[in-house]
Each structure stands twice: as structure tokens, then as C-alpha cells.
Amino acid sequence: MIPKMNAKQLYIFQEVIHSGSISKAARRLGLTQPAVSTAIANLESDMGFLLFKRNHYGTEMTIEAKSFSEGVERVIKALNNLEELAEDLKHGRVGKLQIGCMPGLSTITPKIAARFMRNNPEVKLSLQTFPSKKVEEWVAAGHFDLGIVEKPQSKNELEIFPYKFEMLCALPEDSRLADKEEITIEDLDGKPMITLGDAHQTTMQLRSLASRHDCQLNVVAETQLFPSAMALVNEGVGYALIDPVTAMEYGKRSDSQVILRPFLPLVEFEVAIILPKFHLVSRLCQHFQLALREEFDHLVQSLTN
Q1: What are the residue boundaries of the HTH lysR-type domain, all occurrences included (predicted)?
Q2: Of residues 68 and 127, more confidently modeled
């Protein structure tokens, strides 16, 4: 049985072939000539046949060495590829990301992911849109590497990075409130409102404000998504509180006639980036979540200013 060869011997053998002599190989490798000669002699001993013949003209490859060199080239190439892969894995530049995202942020998340993939072309992506509760469950179970959700209650199985967006008031184009610089809860007293259902965090805040300020909350339509609420406002059905991400994206549409104004008292929409606490997180996921949090920090800052 041939003893195990080591990579250093193979690199030295390859360099002797490329250089044409042991002395040149030693200089290029930064080794002494006796060290290179010893490495070649040990490799020959391990193989059980001569690799080079020494004569007055220098070093000549044996026929066996010529065949052996073809295999060595393949091994060296594989080792180099393995080193590159290890370096990419170390720095989170390769692999597959499994991301779950709530519908409300499913328009901006692909843009952030695409920028990350352009900077890391070996990364593959699975981006799936589900309700926040489903994303939470799958992240906790390890089915998703990372999730973007409405901020959950404190959960032992999740690592939570929260963000807050200040809600805007969306007005129909012909609203008499359009001339106001900001909209208050009193301005919406009795006005037709579009909300995201009684259990949604923004609707609960709005109801609480209406009660405290003795205003009538006149809900004429409910929907599950902010883009749907925006579309209803655009059709003149009523008013709605809209998160600034949806407002920004919807405002890019050519058919958008919605007027947006700051809303007081403040209503906040809380979202979060979540990671599993009890499942291993890849270096790629760690790299992406840092990039994602940086993007979210910038987004919140730009939308607040």
C-alpha cells in the first residue's frame, strides 16, 4: 500500500516539473535545494518508482513521472478549488439562503437580496412569502435561515432584531384634507377608513387613539395587505394608514394618485429580522443578516428624514 502523500510534496513535484530543475524550483518556492531534493526523494520512496533521473544536463522526468504529473495537476487544481471554497465559506460568500418574508415587505426584500447576490455571485437564494406567524414557525424550526416579519412577541426560540416605521396617512386625490401638511386623528373622525383588520397592530393603535380622542373610527373596508389598502385609497374608497415602504413602492406606479401625509399622534409599524436561536446559522446567513440589517438601518433613517 502506498503511504499517504502530503500536499506539500505534490506542490514541490509540480514546481520541479514547471521549473525544469530542482535548483530553479527551490528558488521559486523559497526553499533550499536540499529540502526540495529530500521532498522529491521521499515522494519517490512513497511511490516506489523514480520520478526524475539526474544526469550531466540536469533533471529529466521519467515516463512514470509524466503520467503521474497529469494526476498531480488534477489534485492541485482540486486543492486550490477547495481552498477557495473554504475561504468563501469562511467569509459567507457561497451557499444557499432560505429566507421567509412577510407579504408587506416582499417588494423591497428582493431588491436587497439581489444587491447581496451581485456582490456574492456564488450565492443561491430561496425567497418565499408567507404570513408572519408561518415565517416565525419555520425560522424557529430551522426550515428558514432567516425571516422578515411583523415584530413577534418575545420568543425564546427566536433572535429578534426589531425596526419601527412611522405610519403615513394615505388620502384620496380629491380629499378636502389634501391641503393639510399633516393629518391628525381628529381629521379622520367619521371619515371612511380602510384598515388591515381588527387584530393588526396598526388597527389596534388606531382604535386606541380614536377612543382616547373621542373620535369615530368609521371602517368601511378591511384588507390583509397595505398595497391592497393603497389601491382602495387610489380608487377613492377612503383613507388608510400606510407603512412608508409600501407608500414608497406604490408611489412609483404611473396610475398612483394617492396623497401621503404624516400622521399624528404617531402610529408605528413594528417589523423584525428574525434568526433561529437553537439551530446552527451558516456564515453565509450571518453575512447576509448583517448586510440586511445595514440596509434596514439605512431604510428607516431615509424614511424618517
Answers
A1: 5-62
A2: 127
Sheet containing 146-150: order of strands? 122-129, 94-101, 146-150, 268-276, 158-166
Q: Hey, which bits of 102-224 come out as E strands?
A: 122-129, 146-150, 158-166, 168-171, 183-184, 192-195, 218-222
Which contacts (CB < 8 Å, 24+ apart) does range 45-53 have? 46/2, 46/3, 46/5, 46/9, 47/2, 48/2, 51/13, 52/16, 52/22
Reading the block at residue 61, the C-alpha cell is 522526468
Give residue 279's identity as a one-letter amino acid code. Answer: H
Q: Parallel, antiparallel, or unpaired for β 183-184 and 259-264?
A: parallel
Which one-letter amino acid corresponds to residue 147? G
pLDDT of residue 1: 44
Residues near 228 by beta carbon (within 8 Å), at least 6 away in sequence: none
Task: Tell me how far the alpha carbon of residue 36 is from its chain's centroid.
Answer: 47
Give the model's pLDDT for residue 132.
Answer: 92
* Lowest-pLDDT range of 85-89, 180-184, 243-247, 249-253: 85-89
C-alpha cell at 68: 503521474
Please provide residue 206's backbone torsions phi and psi, each rounded to the nearest 5 degrees.
-65, -45
Contact (Cβ atoms closer than 8 angstroms) between residue 66 and residue 49 = no
